[in-house]
Amino acid sequence: MQFAKTIAAGLVLAVASAAAQDAAPPEPAKAAACFACHGTGGRSRLPQVPVLAGQTSRYLYLQLRDFQEGRRSNEQMSPMAQGLSKDDMRELAAYFAAQKPGVQGFQPDAERARLGKAKADETLCTMCHQGGFAGQNEIPRVAGQQFDYIVKQLSDFKARRRTNDAGNMTSVSNTLTDADIQNLAHYLVGL
Question: What's the CATH fold of domain 110-189?
Answer without folding.
Answer: Cytochrome Bc1 Complex; Chain D, domain 2 (1.10.760)
